[in-house]
Design goal:
Rossmann fold; 13 strands; alpha/beta; 387 residues; six-stranded parallel beta sheet; Glyco_trans_1
């Protein structure tokens, strides 16, 4: 079978991990012919050696703004499909902004669109009327785009249910392929022998800066936490130092007198993110909205405690493997972090629970790849061969 992977929308965050994992598996698959189109941002993560194992790797130009985010796939992908003549197209995350001739699967990972009750989540104030109207217009385009593919691919049953409720998309058109950690991450975790520092607690925050990630909760949480721990601590981010998101967090921390408790390692390539996990005592993700996130299985794989938000998606994905908080309350966050960092029994219990949950809630990279192949065969109306 000839397959086209469309990764033209992938730029940053957990989507990069998902795309790299799928492309790595495709490059090692001798049973199908794989053509892959990648965004300019994702292209920087793909070596010539990896690309050389594919039938074709098409490196698209970088997008400079939101308009180009829509127009680059629309401009280039129809030509890519004509040249490849695939039997099936898999857009890793959409909307695709173009219509494939072959059977088309499109991944969905836009949580704000299926949580309308949290429309202004993560924002300090209501947007101006014109921005709200523009967002409504763009969301209308996105909604129509998600009705076009033959199948949508999501990572949880919660998202499948909400797509039916919010978009009216029938469940039989939605395929659940659970998220996981990537083979690159698993290999790095297995090799690393580093450990967290002894002179301070390190709290990893492996997240991009999006409003729904709720990272603005962290400066006031640091202010509460400094009176609850018996040693120094640091929240360690993965944000570029010159980025608006980091500058905003640094300014809030400075105003609260907790700037010394926030640090960043900058934007880490996916192959280096495992080191941050290994060198941390706990992972903190105060997110308000997710369709899924690689942070949960990565934390479980790394064997360190997780503190995250008490939300329906988090309960489904983490079960008893996480300490849950009210994501609007710095007091709740500080209390949970202090408990996990100060009480080894609590931390060990979370890690033990996570170790049991990991194989139940998350496929390993090979199992996820087989699920993706099964989705591809389903889109073509075929039964996948036995693995």
């Amino acid at each position: 079978m000839k397959c086209l992977i469309d990764a033209s929308q992938i730029a940053r965050g957990g989507a990069v991990q998902v795309a790299l994992a799928m492309i790595t598996k495709a490059a090692a698959d001798p049973n199908h012919e794989w053509h892959v189109a990648v965004s300019g941002e994702l292209s920087a993560e793909i070596s010539d050696a990896l690309g050389g194992r594919l039938a074709d790797l098409i490196r698209l130009p970088r997008r400079r703004n939101s308009f180009e985010r829509m127009m680059v796939p629309r401009r280039y992908m129809p030509g890519v499909e004509r040249a490849a003549k695939p039997d099936v197209v898999f857009t890793i995350f959409g909307p695709a902004y173009w219509h494939a001739k072959a059977p088309h699967l499109v991944g969905f990972a836009l949580p704000r669109m299926i949580y309308p009750e949290l429309e202004h989540v993560g924002k300090d104030h209501q947007p101006p009327w014109w921005r709200a109207r523009l967002r409504g217009f763009i969301d209308g385009i996105r909604r129509r785009q998600f009705h076009r593919p033959d199948y949508l691919v999501v990572e949880t049953e919660t998202v499948r249910t909400r797509l039916e409720q919010c978009f009216g998309i029938q469940p039989d058109r939605v395929i659940v392929v659970p998220n996981s950690f990537s083979p690159i991450f698993a290999d790095e975790i297995a090799k690393l022998t580093v450990s967290p520092p002894n002179d301070r607690f390190r709290i990893a925050v492996p997240s991009s800066f999006y409003p729904h990630k709720n990272l603005g909760l962290i400066p006031p949480t640091a202010a509460k936490l400094r009176d609850q721990l018996d040693r120094p601590f640091e929240f360690c981010f993965t944000l570029p130092e010159q980025s608006p998101g980091w500058q905003d967090l640094a300014a809030k921390a400075e105003a609260l007198g907790v700037a010394q408790y926030l640090t960043t390692r900058g934007a880490l390539p996916h192959g280096e993110i495992a080191r941050l996990y290994r060198e941390s005592h706990v992972v903190f993700l105060p997110t308000l909205l997710e369709c899924s996130t690689a942070v949960y299985p990565e934390t479980f794989c790394a064997g360190i405690p997780l503190v995250t938000s008490d939300r329906d998606f988090a309960r489904e994905l983490c079960g008893g493997g996480a300490r849950f908080i009210d994501p609007h309350s710095p007091d709740s966050a500080a209390e949970a972090l202090a408990e996990v960092l100060s009480n080894p029994k609590v931390a060990d219990q979370l890690v033990g629970n996570a170790r049991q949950i990991l194989p139940l809630h998350y496929p390993n990279p090979d199992q996820k790849w087989q699920a993706q192949l099964a989705a591809i065969y389903r889109a073509c109306g075929q039964t996948p061969p036995a693995a």
